[in-house]
Amino acid sequence: MNKPLVSICIPCYNAADFIAETIQSALNQTYQNIEIIICDDRSTDNTLNVIKKFEDKRIQLYENEQNLGCSGNYNRVLSYAKGKYTKLLCADDIIIPTCIEKQTASFEKHTDKNIGMVTAHKYVINDKGKNLFIKKFPGKGFIDGKKAIRKSVLHGTNIFGEPGLPLLKTATLNKTSGVIEDKYYTYCNDFDLWCKMLLLGNLYVINEPMFSFRIVSNSVTSNAGWKQASILKNYFELLHNDKKYGISAFTLFIGKIMVNIMTLARALVYKIF
Question: What does the alpha-carbon distance between residue 201 and residue 85 come to, in Å, rounded to a whole number?
């Protein structure tokens, strides 16, 4: 297999508690032709000091002149990527050691499939890094891009995973408008990017966990609740109204019902763990 450069992009803000573990997971990859790009969004805690303790020539640290917010910092860090493939990794999540190797191999072995994004299953972990359970993608192998978007709407959630799970083809990423910076859609800004990617390329799913998503009691995700549900329903409306996505009125109807069901299930999971 060829060993193309892979860019691991880590946007961060006040991430001192977990970013060292995130960076170490990137450095521990069995696939070594990587660059690790970290973009700090004017952190007010000890984040920068933690980052600067790492001495590895593959790490590039950028400090924003002003706070850009979540989506703005996502776009800023992605703009520095020089690799053939790009991973957007949040500063409190973890990729397993073989993640980049296996996801890159999926791209390189299926060059005839116009794959724009490779995803997989994921572990869900707690504040202490303990595995709570595995969240599986509802499918495996090659999936047509538009069909994958429709599948996600029908499930009432972002089935592709949080930033850190998918690996993106950079050439496809650069054809999109990037992460949506409308603050109203902050809760689904990653999902919006995945949908843009899948309009331009197809999906490949690895049938094993590649990533650990951390549930933190004070995180944006764990506190989103019904506000997130309302925003996701409105985003589904946007997809339905944009004919190029091919989301029917029936798919939209089922998707909205499933959003409510998934929100209740998520609230129960957060309460238990």
Answer: 14
